[in-house]
Amino acid sequence: MTTITFKDVCKRYGQTQALQNVSFTVERGECVALLGPNGAGKTTALEILLGLRTANSGIAQIDGSVACTPQSSGFPDALRVGELIGFAAAHYARASSVESVLEAFDLSSYQNARVGGLSGGEQRRVALALAFAGNTDVVVLDEPSTGLDAESRRRLWSQIQTGIANRTTLFTTHYLEEAEALATRIVLIDRGNVRFDGTPDEFRSRFGAKRVEYVDGSGSKRVVASGDTDAYVRNLVHSGEPFSQLTVTQSSFEDIFLSLTGAAS
Amino acid sequence: MNLRVLAAHIALLFRDIARTPSFVVPAVIFPAMFFSIMGVPFARSNAAIANTITASYVGFAIVGVALFQFGVGIAMERGRPWERYVRSLPVSIEVRFISRVVVASCFATLAAGLVCLIAKLFTPVSYTLEQWLLLALYAIMGAVPFVMLGVAIAYVAPPRGATPITNIVYLLSAYCGGFWIPPQYLPSFVAPISPWLPTRQYGELLWSVANGHNPTHAVLMLGYFTLAFTAVAIAAYRRDERVRYA
To answer: Which ipTM was obtained for this model?
Structure first.
């Protein structure tokens, strides 16, 4: 059953086309990553979905109760963590208790701490806790781990995984690793267009599972992601072009993403 | 209206403001402080003067809360990322506005109450219970245009400019409206414009409790100011919505 629908959504800011006929759906219980580089249109899509912006055309709708986490925390500094979570929970009929939300996000010891005095990582955990406090059908997370170091990010992912169980989730990210760790499906968005919609495995098989690295005749390092690295190497050898230090390795999501969006250049 | 949501907004706003010295000091403490320094020495001379000066500083306190709560408060909020989060919650604009009115009323009561307490303790103020109640009624009624002026400032001024702009509007209009100096003693370049200020009309309304004058003209003038400020506030709000959330 479809819970989130985007159908031909277009959004323009002046001369900039932020979203161009964006269409995809999220089924009940799915966790979908809306993946793309900065400026791809991810946040605009979420803001339209949440009613914070209006689309120029198209439909964006949610079937069920929804809660979100803000991208930039920017909380009122003087408020305490427990007060903020209680505030969020008060808006929903089936809200979780403040204590259980604090515990789920490892915030119990910060219940009476002023949010302005927390570190960046702790504030991100509070932001996430706000999205789960209402115990809603749908949660929308905007770049949940932005600004965190690798270790904090992984810790946060495990908390998100606990929270999104039995829930429909749509989250934006520009970390391919995050999409792979959390999502059951990836929607790749670039310059306002949907470039891919499928599972992480389909993403890999379609856009290349391996990468070829070598130094060309001019001494420049070349990196190519390809679905058929054997053919690529064969063609390279047959071309007669001088090269050295050729290696073929498993592509990371990052390689595929950069190759696909052209951001590598 | 969902009372649980309303209560949550009132509680959060109250805590946020009560823990913000940049609001509490100018809006709640300053009127009592100014009254103690500038009002009490004159008010001690006789009951009639004490009644008038007390009414002036009650007005000064209420205007301060209205302008800072709605002007600075909304302006700073709309510039914060937190505002986007709050807008994503299932809550109507009416609930948010009512919560702000309730919280402003609490702080206004506190600010004006401090002035009244000082007057009662250190001056020969001689209002009867009926007069105190009438003063409170007029103080609430007359605050409406200042609430709308605050909202207008909040949406016209940039978030960081709202505090200095509000301070200038507050202090200048308090002085020119006759809250600190009786209108008849205002300098000659201020006296002609004084009757055209909302603070002066608010003062006339409050002073009528002490001097027994008919407040009809002041009420009408405050009504006109309310209409004008509301029109500006709505236009500025709509423009801000178009810019931020279109």
So the answer is: 0.85
